[in-house]
Write a structure and sequence with these properties.
This protein has 339 residues and is of the alpha+beta class. It has a single domain, classed as HIT-like (HIT family, subunit A, 2-Layer Sandwich). 24% of the residues lie in helices and 22% in strands. It has a nine-stranded antiparallel β-sheet with strand order 3-6-8-7-12-13-11-10-9, with helices on both faces. Strands 1-2-16 form a three-stranded mixed β-sheet, with no helix packed on it. Strands 4-5 form a two-stranded antiparallel sheet. A hairpin with a 3-residue loop joins strand 9 and strand 10. It is globular and about 65 Å long. The model has no long low-confidence stretch (mean pLDDT 94).
Length: 339
């Protein structure tokens, strides 16, 4: 009989239809790979050279206001531009390109240069969630926009170019790859069963409990059964919500609280500021009805064994399929204890 904690096996990602290889017996192998120095840099509460701090000059010549809470502005080096032509090139179905207009925003979480979500009071995180909701609703109503992606890259290891606490919002004309895959899987499930994939999945996880990290009255944080990254987590609302515009005040507070809980656990796990990419997936912004879509958040942190050893996607993982040694169940157990 297959033992998920002992035998090599693969697990299906119900959201994307892709598989991940799990090799729990490899956790005892010796490590002679890359070792990195643990960074202990002291970050000031205000940096006169930071283009995100209040009152400072940005690269485009504009000066930030003396903001006291959250602050949003158009990205000075946007990956998407609203004036990009929506044209297409197609040569025999082999050389294909499409113009992709869009909009990019930056959200500063706090005027404090030295804070992170894990060190902010829940009341202050509620203000961030409220601004996310406001930004989503504005972009969702824009006829140029087909999808809105809110994401945060935390830490230099994840490519963050500035330590000031902030995130980005990219509003694309078309649905990006991950949303296309998740849309199809959730839509197919709904058509076959007349129920929500993630509502049903969450019911199974709460019944089992082994992969639950923490929860409150509105949200659950868990390590997905199909997790790829060693300490990957997913945030799921306990009631069916398609996007931020459906959030009530209590929903926003519950999301703020679960964000505080999970980021504190990450920092405590290896006693270091934990790097990650985090973002929210929500229904498309095409004006259509999407009853199958269930709002959720993904945390993808790279650390593997300690503050100095990260997971790399190489070899078989690039050429075949993602692979992990630490099982999602053991990862959830360690994150539960790190609070």
């Amino acid at each position: 009989m297959l033992d998920l904690q002992q035998n090599s096996h693969r697990r299906l990602n119900a959201l994307t239809g892709e598989w991940v290889l799990v090799s729990p017996h490899r956790t005892s192998r010796p490590w002679q790979g890359q070792m990195e120095t643990k960074g202990e840099a002291v970050v000031p509460s205000y940096d006169p050279g930071c283009y995100l701090c209040p009152g400072n000059l940005r690269a485009n010549g504009e000066r930030n206001p003396a903001y006291r809470d959250v602050f949003a502005f158009d990205n000075d080096f946007a990956a998407l531009r609203a004036d990009a032509p929506d044209d297409e090139i197609d040569e025999a179905g082999l050389i294909v390109a499409q113009g992709e207009p869009g909009r990019c925003r930056v959200v500063c979480f706090s005027p404090r240069h030295d804070l992170t979500l894990s060190r902010m009071p829940v009341d202050d995180i509620v203000k961030i969630v409220a601004l996310w909701r406001q930004e989503f609703m504005r972009l969702d109503a824009d006829p140029l926009v087909g999808a809105v992606q809110i994401f945060e890259n935390r830490g230099a290891m994840m490519g963050a170019s500035n330590p000031h606490p902030h995130c980005q919002i990219w509003a694309t004309h078309r649905e990006p790859n991950e949303l296309v895959k998740e849309s199809k899987r959730q839509g197919d499930y709904f058509a076959q069963r007349q129920s929500c994939l993630l509502c049903d999945y969450l019911a199974l996880e709460r019944g089992d409990g082994g992969r639950i990290v923490c929860e409150n009255e509105g949200f659950v944080a868990l390590v997905p059964f199909w997790a790829t990254w060693p300490f990957e987590t997913m945030l799921l609302p306990r009631r069916h919500l398609g996007a931020l515009d459906e959030f009530t005040g209590s929903d926003m507070r519950a999301l703020a609280d679960i964000l505080s809980q999970i980021t504190c656990r990450y920092d405590n796990l290896f006693s270091t500021p934990f790097p990650y990419s985090m973002g929210f997936h929500q229904r498309p912004s095409d004006g259509g009805a999407h009853p199958h879509w269930h709002f959720h958040g993904h945390f993808y942190p790279p650390l593997l064994r300690s503050a100095t050893i990260r997971k790399f996607m190489v070899g078989f993982e690039l050429l075949g399929a993602p692979q992990r040694d630490i099982t999602p169940e053991s990862a959830a157990e360690r994150l539960r204890a790190a609070f």
